[in-house]
Design a protein that fits this description.
The complex is a heterodimer of chains A (about 500) and B (about 350). With about 500 residues, chain A is α/β, with parallel strands linked by helices. Among the domains of chain A are: about 80 residues, no CATH class; about 240 residues, Rossmann fold (3-Layer(aba) Sandwich), CATH 3.40.50. Chain A has 18 helices and 22 strands. In chain A, the strands form five sheets. Chain A has a six-stranded mixed beta sheet, sandwiched between helices. In chain A, helix 4 crosses helix 5, helix 5 packs parallel to helix 6 and helix 17 packs across helix 18. Chain B is mostly helical and about 350 residues long. Chain B has one domain: ABC transporter involved in vitamin B12 uptake, BtuC. In chain B, the strands form two sheets. Chain B has a two-stranded antiparallel ribbon with strand order 1-4. A two-stranded antiparallel ribbon of chain B has the order 2-3. The two termini of chain B are about 35 Å apart. Classes of the chains: A alpha/beta (about 500), B mainly alpha (about 350).
């Protein structure tokens, strides 16, 4: 489908494989001058990989081509893409919060000087105001970025991107710009994007929020499992059609685990609040898997940390019949709570300890007699656990970094199952894990549940929730808005509910 | 917590080959070993040891009358022993991911305190020594309190503590070096005698080294410290009491600094004001160099001992070779500190970009 006007960006034949997993498969995309082109898809559909390929962060598989403003460009070379006038505004924006708007706009661009190397602040402020005016925005440029509202920060980031291209910007890529933005501010962002578009810039707009897509975009491209399933004019489709396209490749998986017998309530949350989350009530019983669905910013990301005590919380958390003190992960562990965190490398494995030490870290005390860790027992337990979790590692003494993400995750899961917890908290248990490891992890979770564990799983992968859960709570804007119970959990319906669409 | 090493595979789980963990790759760590480490020499782990041997041979051939003598070996061993105890205390705090720059000041303070207790306090010397070591541990406890409770950066907190301790040292000793004359002959013997012609201080170092090696590598406490030093966030989320264990390590660090001061006092037979300061930089240099040896990437006891003696041999050899260059010791120790830290920093940045 050709858009009116000259194409500013033409991507063709972009594939990307990591190991044996193909995350992008022959994706093509074109963006016309003055067009807002939305890119949508589920988590793991390849949106962010595509952007990282365009940015030159990843090298695409051979055969991919990029043409910008009629000239072929080197994909995978960040400098060439930058020289072609492509600019990225990522979710974290890359601003320096402690500096003023003027300084943030001058960073990387240079300060206006007057005689004697002195910064000409009057000229500098005027330049900053001009840069903001170019995106149709006005604000006191002397304020600190830290004091700005989210949409104002985004405006500064976009203005900076535009300014750095010296008016030669061809493509602006906005990656989830509204993920942490209150609804009221989104309208102001829409106006900024329109101002950028009116300069003839092609905008690639990545978002989970379909209403923004329909309000802003001219065309939308849908990715499913790394493949482009279609590019449509927004005026010619509706919400329902778009969601069908997004979930088209999703197979409604048959549940494999028989619903077991439920025991008494093991985990009880009352009016749990903190970060994005407000007043969540939730019970998980022994032998039950409860899922939490929700888009980025819905509060889903924080639940596990709040319950475990690694983030400060309000409300009560009860495990068994004991109420847990907040901000005490060690007490949570002793009460029988276990957490498999989302950020594996930062919070899950201990980089610097080897595979054996990582496997045994939660049970080291039990390996010791008179404070002496018995080396044989240390090895045997790690070997048995590694085998049970089917961890593939060069050796027990290998660095934990030598393992693939899936195997690292099995180590993290294994170290916790070894403590015989009563409640297991899983935060994105299979993020960045290949398909076979994902299936193995799911099976290990099934095994643990069938032995009477209570599991709370938070995931941005709705298909995973369908696969694992007996019950799923859907969060939107920090509150529980719906609850679905097996056997009626459907990936598609969870997506509808998370996005706030009526199914 | 339970430790069921006997528990088999979970029900419904396909049993994997029991030894598959060992068989997936040809050799241990083969992926992580740099290319130049190939072969039985394991240069990545033992380079310091080889270098030390080479230096001993080279200096002994060049300086047979001064370097290649038993007396010189004894001097190197004895003078390194006190520095070694301080160095191990640095390694212990670094292993736990914290930092104590007030160690040298703590050592000086302990010397002054011991001098005061012995000359004015009229105490039996074992009592005075015990009190001094407890005082050192208390200094560590105060450091730990400020660092973990108030969240003050370790370098700032212990830098401040250094200055406070300098003041206390002066207050206790009036800035005077005092001869310890009335503590009895057993006090001097405890620092100056030899056993089988090996200076007794070497045995003190050996005892401390063995104890710390055991604690760091063979007890849960040590393993938790390494976990905290590698990744405090993940350690905390594994249920480890990060602050408590870091505090404990800082207290032991303080006690060891005091012990170093006590042994120096015994060796000199005098409480020498300001004697701790020159030990600070070499201690950090040897600690960082030690983290590249034996167990690379970890602040480990054996590596630290190798680094300690490598440095001592290099410094002594150069001092004897160039007797008219008094600055050679500072030059070597400073350079080693910078180079060793560069190596560690490079290893860390390579790790995080992979």
């Amino acid at each position: 489908m050709e858009a009116e006007g000259q194409a500013r960006l033409q991507l063709a034949g972009v594939s990307k494989t990591f190991g044996a997993v193909r995350v992008l498969d022959d994706v093509s995309l074109d963006i016309a001058a003055g067009e807002v082109h939305a890119l949508v898809g589920q988590n793991g559909s390849g949106k962010s990989t595509l952007i990282k390929v365009l940015a030159g962060f990843y090298q695409a598989d051979p055969g991919a081509t990029a043409v910008i403003d009629g000239a072929p460009r080197e994909l995978g070379d960040p400098n060439d893409i930058h020289a072609a006038g492509v600019r990225f505004v990522h979710q974290d924006l890359g601003l320096v919060p402690a500096l003023s708007v003027v300084d943030n706009l001058a960073l990387g661009h240079g300060y206006a000087r007057s005689q004697g190397m002195r910064i000409n602040w009057r000229e500098q402020r005027a330049a900053a105001r001009r840069a903001l005016a170019a995106v149709g925005y006005e604000l006191d440029v002397r304020r600190l970025v830290d004091d700005l509202q989210p949409v104002e920060r985004t405006a500064v980031a976009i203005a900076r991107a535009l300014q750095s291209a010296h008016g030669e910007m061809s493509i602006l890529v906005l990656d989830e710009p509204t993920a942490t933005m209150p609804k009221g501010e989104v309208q102001r962002l829409v106006q900024i994007v329109r101002a950028v578009r009116s300069r003839g810039v092609g905008v690639l707009y990545v978002s989970h929020h379909l209403e923004e897509v329909f309000e802003l975009a001219d065309r939308v491209t849908v990715l499913v499992d790394g493949q482009r399933v279609g590019t449509e004019r927004c005026s010619q489709i509706d919400h329902k059609k778009l969601v069908t396209m997004m979930t088209g490749g999703v197979v409604d998986d048959v549940r494999r685990r028989a619903v077991g017998t439920r025991g008494k309530t093991m985990l009880s949350l009352e009016r749990l609040s903190g970060a994005e989350l407000t007043g969540l009530d939730l019970q998980v019983r022994a032998g039950e898997v409860v899922g939490v669905a929700g888009i980025t910013g819905s509060g889903r990301e924080e639940i596990c940390s709040l319950v475990f005590g690694s983030k400060p919380r309000r409300g009560t958390v009860t495990v068994g019949d004991r109420e847990l003190p907040p901000s005490r992960p060690d007490r949570s562990c002793r009460a029988g709570l276990a957490l498999v965190p989302a950020n594996r490398l930062r919070d899950g494995v201990v980089i610097g300890l080897n595979v054996r030490e990582n496997l045994n870290i939660t049970t080291t005390r039990g390996l010791a007699k008179f404070s002496f860790i018995r080396p044989g027992l240390d090895r045997r337990q790690a070997a048995a656990l590694g085998t049970k979790m089917s961890v593939k590692a060069p050796s027990l003494d290998a660095s934990i970094e030598a393992l693939s993400g899936g195997n690292q995750q099995k180590v993290v899961l294994g170290k916790w199952l070894q403590t015989n917890p009563s409640v297991l908290l899983l935060d994105e248990p299979t993020q960045g894990v290949d398909i076979s490891a994902k299936a193995e992890i799911h099976r290990l979770i099934d095994d643990a549940v069938s032995q009477g564990l209570a599991v709370l799983v938070c995931s941005s992968d709705e298909a995973e929730l369908e696969r694992l859960c007996d019950r799923v709570v859907v969060l939107r804007e920090g509150r529980a808005v719906a609850e679905v119970a097996a056997p009626d959990i459907r990936t598609r319906q969870l997506i509808h509910l998370s996005l706030g669409l009526t199914a | 917590m339970t430790t069921s090493s006997t528990s088999g595979p979970a029900p419904g789980h396909r049993a994997a080959a029991p030894e598959r963990l060992e068989r997936d790759a040809p050799g241990p760590d083969s992926k992580n070993r740099p290319a130049w480490s190939a072969g039985a020499l394991r240069l990545d782990r033992f380079s310091g040891l080889y270098l030390a041997v080479v230096l001993v041979v080279v200096f002994s051939v060049m300086l047979p009358d001064t370097f290649g003598t038993m007396d010189n070996a004894r001097v190197i061993a004895a003078s390194s022993a006190i520095a070694g105890i301080l160095t191990l205390s640095v390694a212990l705090s670094m292993a736990a991911g914290t930092f104590d720059i007030s160690l040298a000041a703590n050592m000086t303070f302990s010397i002054c305190l011991l001098g005061a207790l012995l000359t004015r306090g009229d105490l039996a010397w074992p009592v005075a020594v015990s009190l001094t070591i407890v005082a050192g541990a208390l200094v560590g406890a105060v450091n730990a309190f400020v660092i973990t409770r108030f969240g003050v950066e370790a370098i700032v907190a212990t830098l401040g503590m250094s200055s406070v301790l300098a003041a206390l040292s002066f207050w206790v000793s009036d800035g005077q070096t005092v001869l310890i004359s009335d503590a009895g002959p057993s006090f001097a013997d405890a620092g100056q005698s030899t056993i089988a012609s090996v200076p007794i201080t070497v045995f003190y170092l050996a005892a401390v080294a063995i104890a710390l090696w055991f604690v760091l590598e063979h007890t849960p406490f040590g393993r938790y410290l390494y976990a905290i030093g590698s990744n405090p966030q993940a350690a905390k989320l594994a249920g480890i009491k990060v602050q408590r264990l870091q505090s404990l390590s800082l207290m032991i660090t303080g006690a060891l600094a005091a012990l170093a001061g006590v042994i120096l006092t015994m060796q000199l037979g005098a409480a020498s004001f300001g004697a701790g300061a020159p030990y600070l930089l070499p201690a950090f240099a040897a600690t960082f160099l030690g983290s590249t040896q034996i167990l690379p990437g970890r602040f480990n006891v054996r590596g630290t001992i190798v680094a300690l003696y490598l440095l001592a041999i290099a410094v002594k050899g150069l001092q004897l070779q160039f007797p008219d260059l008094p600055w050679i010791k500072d030059l070597v120790e400073g350079s080693v500190l910078i180079v060793a830290v560069s190596i560690t920093a490079r290893a860390i940045s390579r790790r995080s970009t992979r």
